[in-house]
Specification:
alpha+beta; Outer membrane phospholipase (ompla), Chain C; 12-stranded antiparallel β-barrel; 13 strands; 17% helix; 39% strand; disordered N terminus
């Protein structure tokens, strides 16, 4: 067993050295994406002056602004207004007191004024860094009912570790159905890092990393349902795996439909899913649906720079699931603190059938998605 653990942690250490430059590059790209996101919600059409309106469009598209346009209003800023579709929602305007929130229309570029073209790197799910994350019950002996079962010796992992997630997306195809329907490609990585573990053979290794590429067809619905604004319907295919060898390998594929609603300071995202079946001879976790649930539901409330969120998963057939509570709050300027508490199953793939309660404290790297 010592040999297995040594090989596992040594490989993890090499993976850390290889992954860190890539991770930092992605995080830098995500920070660059936040500058793009900060412009969302601008409505150039509302500007009456022709030359100033053209300057607005030039700046929005990233083109150099001709000198003759700049000279017309050298000291006056371009007016920035919320589009009609953003009234009563969490529009992201150029205001330092704005909450770290984007509307669904901004995030998914649902309206003509929100479109920014294809293959631009933008935030997807939450991007955060938790330097300290504590578990009440670390999963020291991961197991699965198939393909090698699990370990027969406890892993030397500690209850306190670091955790981070970065997530981005890009639009590959715009306006598939007339002026509606965009195809997005997304990628999310969540990593648990035994940063404070100095036990022999561990050397601050990455305990678990989950890789989640997906393809999403985003459709604008723009309907009122029981007083809520039904903004969009996303149809997606998502793969998730942890890249481990047996017996710690975990993976699954899903198709889902995600419904997005907004009302005043509230956002609701409801996402039922169906697991894509695999052959039993290749299935590392045949019972994963019993613990990871049949879908998830997120309710978020934002006010005065703070965001409170609850994300729940539940299995209709077996009664397992998890509840994730989050709080983002302003610290200084664009910097926001972030607190995450999770109780239940499946915080990560290797823990899909392991129940625990965790608490992490850190920072939110990009606006709330």
């Amino acid at each position: 067993m010592d040999t297995i653990l040594s090989r596992e942690h040594n490989n993890s250490g090499q993976g850390c050295l290889f992954a860190l430059p890539f991770t930092m590059a992605i995080l830098v790209a995500c920070f660059q994406a936040s500058a793009v996101a900060a412009e969302l919600g601008i409505d150039c059409k509302s500007i009456d002056d022709d030359s100033v309106r053209l300057t607005c469009y030039d700046r929005l598209s990233g083109r150099a602004v001709p000198q003759k346009h700049e000279s017309l209003a050298p000291t006056e800023p371009i007016p920035i207004q919320a589009s009609k579709s953003d009234i009563g929602t969490s529009s992201l305007l150029t205001n330092k007191n704005t909450p770290p929130v984007l509307t669904l229309a901004n995030t998914w570029e649902l309206n003509a004024a929100d479109k920014r073209g294809t293959f631009k790197l933008l935030p997807h799910k939450l991007n955060y860094l938790l330097p300290a994350r504590y578990s009440t019950s670390p999963n020291v002996r991961p197991n699965s009912p198939t393909r090698g079962g699990g370990l027969n010796t406890d892993l030397p992992i500690q209850a306190t570790e670091a955790k981070f997630q970065f997530s981005f997306k890009t639009k590959a195809w715009e306006n598939i159905f007339g002026d509606n329907g965009d195809l997005w490609l997304g990628y999310t990585q969540q990593s648990n890092w035994q940063l404070y573990n100095n036990k022999s053979g561990v050397s601050a290794a990455f305990r678990e990393s989950n890789y989640e590429p997906e393809a999403i067809l985003a459709l604008r619905t723009d309907r009122n349902v029981l007083g809520w604004h039904w903004q969009m319907l996303n149809l997606g295919f998502v793969h998730q795996s942890n890249g481990h060898a047996l017996p710690l390998s975990r993976s699954w594929n899903r198709v889902y439909a995600q419904f997005g609603f907004e009302r005043d300071n509230f956002t609701i995202l409801a996402r039922p899913w169906i697991r894509v079946p695999e052959r039993s001879s290749r299935d590392d976790n045949p019972d994963i649906h019993k613990y990871m649930g049949s879908g998830d539901l997120r309710v978020a409330y934002h006010r005065a720079g703070h965001v409170l969120s609850a994300l729940g998963r539940y299995s209709l057939s077996d009664g397992h699931g998890a509840l994730q509570l989050e709080w983002a709050f302003p610290i200084s300027g664009a910097l926001h603190g972030y607190v995450q508490a999770i109780s239940g199953y499946g915080e990560s793939l290797v823990d899909y059938n392991h129940a625990q309660t965790t608490l992490g404290v850190g920072i939110l790297l990009l606006p709330w998605q």
